[in-house]
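Lab channel / #folding
Pinned by the channel admin:
"Please post every new chain as: sequence first, then the structure tokens as a reply. Keep commentary short and put observations after the output so the thread stays searchable."

First post following the new format, from NK:
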Amino acid sequence: MGVGEARHTHGGVNRKTPPDLVDATVRFAPVILLGSPRIVIHDAFMTHALRNGSLLLLLLIPAWSAPIPLRVVAANLTSDKSSAYSPTNGNHSNPEGAGARILQALKPDLVLIQEFNTTVPPDQWVRASFGAGFSHFREQGVQIPNGIISRHPILQSGVWDDPVLDNREFVWARIGLPGGRDLWVVSVHLHTRSAESREKQIRALTRHLRATLPDNAMLIIGGDFNTRQEGEPCLRLLSSHVTIPERLPVDDFGNPATNAPRNRVYDRVLACRKLQHFAVPVALAGLTFPDGLVFDTRVFRALDQCPPSKRADSAAPMMQHMAVVCDFLLPDAAPARTGKKAE
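Reply from TO:
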């Protein structure tokens, strides 16, 4: 089993929302977030409110009850044995910098990353690619490590044993969200060989989840599942912990496949039912994706509005998978933190 390294930062502002405003706050967020650089994400909700005759409720929401946007990206963007994430540079000449450019263009709050090798120390790469305020955790001592990168502070992190593979494990973290809430996340990279091996891995993962997570925990599992079809046993097993959506994230042309040839759905972001209730459309560069986005720079129509990514980035050497993006809009409530089972 690999051990892990971490760079954790702590911070954030706690604000409280009256419980009777929670649903209204989530549903009618666009007025609250006017002026935010992420406002394009919430444009669709203004239309939703107007169509449903809810403008009065929208106008009654006080500005201090702003909800919390959470953009989650699954990123197995490099898949070659010699691949490594590299900081981008000014002239975009380094192909290894393609992964960093894609992630910078997407502006995530949370990245569940696979094959997390870097050409510079990981903390240096995270700082250069995301900013000094981000935290990260990466397993060590394995060939193709999994990792977690977060805008919000990582309070706990660790590695769970994968009984099938020894070149990576399951990486988990407990993240502190504003309002005193915990978000549990797991970065996975399942076996490519067979559905049976993936089922064995997920059986082990569900045992880890039951032993570690407190009751009613908010949970996201994401990464490279290497699934060949919907309805695989590993996904059915996971459905006791997370929602397996019927409608998948897609690209500009409605294609949900995430590998380089764009013919298989390998990569996913899966949220528990509690969190899935707050899923919202992904909006990027004026385009809206109701069920999430598969970001392929080769086909994204408004790529010129997504700096610093370049058209060839998704086809760069040692780049095989597409980033998968899901957005959530959480009410700014402040319940007590969930219990801590993890050691």
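NK: The chain has a mean pLDDT of 82.
TO: also worth noting, Residues 152-330 form a domain with the Deoxyribonuclease I; Chain A fold (CATH 3.60.10.10).
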